[in-house]
Amino acid sequence: MSTTTNFDFNKQTVIVSGSKRPGQTGIYRNSFMPDNLVVKPCPEVSTVFDSFQYAVSRYAKKPCLGYRPFDKKTGKYGDYVWETYEKVLERFTNFGSGLVHINDTIVKNGKKDRYMVGVWSINKPEFQLIIQANAAYNLITVPLYDTLGHDAIEYCTNHAELQIVCMTANHITSMLKLAPKIPQLKVIISIDPLEDLTEYVKKWASEYNIKIYEFSEVENLGKENPRKYNPPTPSDLFVIPYTSGTTGDPKGVMVSHENMVAVLASYFVVTQSKPGDVIISYLPLAHVFGINVEICSIFLGCPIGYYRGDIFGIFDDMKVLKPTAFPSVPRVFNRVAAMLKGHTVESTGIIGVLSRKAIKDKTENFEKTGSVTHPIWDRILLNKFRDSFGGRVKYFSTGGAPLAKDVMDFLRIAFSVSFQEGYGQTENTGLGCTTMVGDAQPSHVGPPVCSSELKLVDVPEMGYTSEDKPFPRGEICVRGKGVMVGYFKDEKKTKETIDKEGWLHSGDIGYIDARGCVVVIDRKVSIFKLSQGEFIAPEKIEQVYLRNLLLAQLFVYGDPLKSYLVGIAVPNPELFVPWANELLGGTYEFEEHVKNKKVCDALLNNMNQVGIKYGLNGFERIKAIYVEPKAFTPEDGIITATFKTKRPAMTKFYRKIIDQLYADFDKSSQTVRAKL
């Protein structure tokens, strides 16, 4: 419901007068609201609880949350079943009353509010009901990543001192195994019916003085013991998501109601969504991006349909749901683009010829007119893409990492959608910048959102300064009501991250382009030196290489005693196998290709062609790779639940392989030198 009509895309930020200081830029604000930072979407809304009350007053009989019931007899999922806003209100009121009753009678911690309730679950309507119930009774939601390993679950449960945890039934056994190490846990609430397991798990839990309830039991307790709402204040904590840190233990980020409402206000200014638009929920609700999408959708009157919990079934879910908006992350968009290109523009024969012509014509039309539709090509060919997403999708949005220009351009044209890209981190409630509605230029993240202001601070050790030409460069710092309260139980780290003036130091490097848009180019914390003294930013290098659609994942490593880089590459099977088959002139399995030296050498060469194309210096290019057939997973402890690389853990995990890569390359280099 964007309100930014007639926005000047050539002047997207303004500099606050007199704000320039030595060693940093002036303070940038969104030119749509340069005088004041927005803090609320409307006068009636100061908390998340207020936002639902506002929405239910307008959309009471409209669908709010939907899911697909599973028929055990047929083994199939049915059509979406919807609960209205007023039904959701009734259910979370009952559940919240039940929670408070359990705390008073079973947990007995002496607290009337502001205690924490954990949630360990995939996205389900009940997850959102728990979030809303906690907001209504001034309790704090602590989401636990569904893919976190047991060590991280144990750490977060103890660190947050969780006495009540809601979880899907498949996690109860794991939690009970951890019970001796989490003695404060008193209550487990099963989001799913326990059915035949009820007696068994309750008996096991009783050995640790843990009581188990089913979700429906808690709702019934709330009906029988109703409690008045205990509305929070804006400064009260709303949620504590744990960042699955790339180094050390996860950090709990304290997000207040004021923080979330400020983001809601910014979202309200720039979003294209309007009442009745349909969202599919699969972005983890344990992450602030997923929470933002749902809180904002509910406020705007946009029904949320939950996927079945299996990512491989999401396209079937979308065909039934027919969403109009698809928020996602670059790794998903990269995969979608790779699959579609492999079957269209990069295929042989008539399909390839027609697809390339269609994309070319639509791109030229888009550049001339700004329209993403085409009267001929959409009808005879490209509408099939939209059909795979249900046929009604109008908006794509992305965040969490940069999305390559060629991927965004292809998807925008292929699906006939508008595309918005955001930038943020958990510490600023997931939203610091976003592209403005109607801005078709890619490769930037727009101006700061209207609830935040931004500046760049010099990083001289990396050669980035506010005096750089043609554009100022430096560490991106953000200030506004969206900035977190701090890290839970970690005042030292909070002070390191948020300075005395309230500026959140992101650790990201960026510049402000000629139109006033923020471009993220580097990461401050991951840099290291090679033996010749060259600084390396591995995340930037990985993002460049991952523009190669043959790759699914990549880890770049540099030994400080060496002058070159090596890498661990995980191929994208959908495109890697046919490419390798063509290279070898035969038909082979994926596992055979990753062990074939000719294929591995050709893959490295292909990767470095992309590196050269996108401007990697010689010292930034990988000299040797190991082709890994198994994807990096959080279960191995080498990436986070949001798929960010844990560099120390990754290095340790692949230590022997890395050492062998260096030994083999050094040996081959010596052989070449000897021959010369």
Briefly, what is this?
This protein is an alpha/beta fold. It has 21 helices and 30 strands. The longest helix is centred in the first third of the chain and has 23 residues, at 85-107.
Walk me through the structure:
The mean pLDDT is 93. Helix 1 (48-59) packs parallel to helix 9 (288-300), helix 2 (85-107) packs across helix 3 and helix 12 packs across helix 13. A five-stranded parallel β-sheet has the order 8-7-9-10-11, sandwiched between helices. It folds into three domains: 48-317, ANL, N-terminal domain (Rossmann fold, 3-Layer(aba) Sandwich), CATH 3.40.50; 330-390 and 400-423, no CATH class; 528-675, 2-Layer Sandwich (GMP Synthetase, Chain A, domain 3). The chain starts with 12 loop residues before the first strand and ends with a helix. It is globular, with a radius of gyration of 26 Å. The protein has 676 residues and is an alpha/beta fold. The chain is 37% helix and 19% strand.
